[in-house]
Amino acid sequence: MTENGDFYYGQDKIHYEVVRKEATYKEKTGKSRSDKLIVEKTKPRKVVIKVHPDQRVVATAPIDASEEIIHDAIMKRARWIWQSLQDFTKQKDHVLPKRYVSGETQFYLGRRYVLKVITDAEANDGINSTVKLSRGKLNVELSQIDSELDSEKQAVLVKSLIDKWYKDKFTSVSRERIEALLHKASWVYSSPSIKLMTMKKQWGSCSIKGNLILNPHLIKAPKECIDYVILHELCHIAEHNHSENFWRLLTQVMPNWKEVKARLDGMAEFYLNE
What we know:
Distance between the termini: 37 Å
Number of helices: 8
Largest sheet: 4 strands, mixed
């Protein structure tokens, strides 16, 4: 169950979500179910507040916590919440459009690589330009003809070469991950078809027929994040909307999906940056 609230810090109005979580048996009693002794009095559980890189403020509270208790917990951390939001805002401001020149950062499976554009004067003579990973660098080696392009056209070419390299890699990785994850999705009887589509604000989608559309920018994220998106879409084959049944199903196949999603969302500005 999710609720919403707001508070002011100075002139800034800050929105937050409240997620109520029922206590597990161990949280309620302090004992596992195998213990014979049941403890009736336990310490009250806390309201846990998190500020995510996508600037969501989420308070996870016991299901029986009053609004007053939750609001008090929020206000006690008001300055920290505000400062965290400011820090994440500054971080996003530093995400500049890429120029596709040597020295820029590129990502592959969650790791950072330094782009190095190698012109024909530095590289082996070749007919075709190539993209290769080597020792922490993403090397784009330009052919003699491509090396003679002006800087603007060269940047366009380098982008197209990197985009194709990413798509080729993700075609292989996405199929590999789906095959590895299908055993978790018992409701899926055959491997679904995959279409790659570059999107600005979505990682993936699932058609009514059960065909998956995945964003090739996912190849920049760790494999666990790729798995989350694939499992999310596979769950849509069984549940076509974001109902309680959908989230329950996703939790069954990936219990830590919230943490993985937060990790992916936190780097989205970088992974989707072109």
